[in-house]
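I am still getting used to backbone structure tokens and would like to learn alongside you. Label the sequence line and the structure token line clearly, so we can match residues to local backbone shapes. Go ahead whenever you are ready, and we will take it from there:
>
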Amino acid sequence: MSVGALLLGGIIYLTFRTSQIVLFRAIKLIGWEEHLNQWRQAINLSLPQWAIFCLPDALWASAYILIIDTLLNKYTLKTKLIVASIIPSIGIVSELMQALQLLPGTFDIFDIVAYSVPFLLYIFINLTITK
């Protein structure tokens, strides 16, 4: 499930985001730029803005949380929650730093939501459903 979330987030990112993003420089360096451009031109699909800009963040945060949950299966819930909060927290802090212009990028409140929802769901599931 976590691999699927990572892949879907990556596919959305590579297919619909601007080629000015740092990741595209890496694609060019490894010689995949032409293949990616062909892929992007072949996709005849439009997605809502939130799916292009926020959904990958939510999917990547979800994948991280699922991986942490699996790796820390034998640990206490407190430990799992602390470690699972790392990536969502970094995402939220980076968005806030963008808002304060301390980090390059465009602040988006919905990115904060995208990082928060998977972690809040993880807390909810662990505190209510798994009891």
In short: The chain has one domain: 2-129. Residues 2-129 form one domain. Residues 61 and 87 are 6 Å apart (CA to CA).
